[in-house]
Design brief:
- The structure is a single chain.
- It contains eleven helices and no strands.
- By secondary structure, the chain is mainly alpha-helical.
- Helix 9 packs across helix 10.
């Protein structure tokens, strides 16, 4: 995978491409490697890893509904921007281009988030390494969630094989940098989806839990198409 920015057309078309790659190339890689290590095919395990990869490994951040929607969104922007700065070696202009916002906005977010751009530049992690680490973390997280059903010896072998699987997966993944607006929309959808599920789709309870007005929550979930609000 090359590290330079490429134009992938419209976000919708890019997302379709990612879905196709996961179905036709990445799922077989996961199935072959995990079957070889575990001795069995666990369809749900493959499905869970593929699902996490589908939303873009670089944007696979934990969703914490124990804090307010506003706080969580601020944390997300911080993490999103830090990842972009890492894969673009602290280059504000490049990050602004990827995020599709002006440089002043990036500088403002950097200041508000208290990100140390000089340190990011000094560390100079290769973009490939940042991406591979993100894929590795996803696979390890999903494996960990299956520790109750996978034999400890086989699970240990699976962990040992993660780096090689990550390398194969990353070679197939298209470069999919999302703009800040697209990334925020994805985050809002996942955060609100989780909060609604925790409250059995009760809007009043959900709004109270995440610190939003009922009307604001109603408007957001209607826009995101999360539940039928008619």
């Amino acid at each position: 995978m090359k590290d330079h920015h490429k134009d992938h057309g419209t976000p919708h078309r890019a997302q379709e491409t990612l879905e196709q790659v996961i179905q036709t190339k990445i799922k077989p890689i996961l199935e072959t490697n995990l079957q070889r290590v575990l001795g069995v095919t666990i369809e749900e395990l493959n499905k869970d890893i593929s699902s996490r990869l589908q939303k873009n490994p670089l944007l696979d951040f934990p969703i914490d509904t124990s804090i307010s929607f506003k706080q969580a969104k601020k944390q997300f922007k911080n993490q999103y921007l830090k990842k972009l700065l890492q894969i673009r070696y602290g280059n504000i202009s490049e990050v602004a281009k990827l995020a599709d916002v002006d440089r002043r906005s990036i500088h403002r977010i950097v200041k508000e988030s208290k990100l140390n751009v000089d340190k990011i530049r000094h560390d100079m992690a290769r973009a490939y390494d940042v991406k591979r680490e993100a894929v590795t973390q996803i696979i390890e997280d999903v494996l960990n969630s299956y520790k109750e059903v996978i034999h400890p010896v086989k699970l240990e072998k699976a962990y040992e094989n993660v780096n090689e699987v990550s390398k194969e997966v990353l070679e197939q993944l298209p470069e999919e940098p999302l703009t800040l607006k697209e990334a925020e929309t994805n985050f809002e959808r996942e955060f609100l989806q989780k909060a609604l599920k925790e409250n059995q789709d009760n809007l009043t309870q959900t709004a109270k839990q995440i610190g939003l007005r009922y009307e604001t929550l109603h408007r957001k979930i209607k826009k995101l198409g999360l539940i039928n609000t008619a």
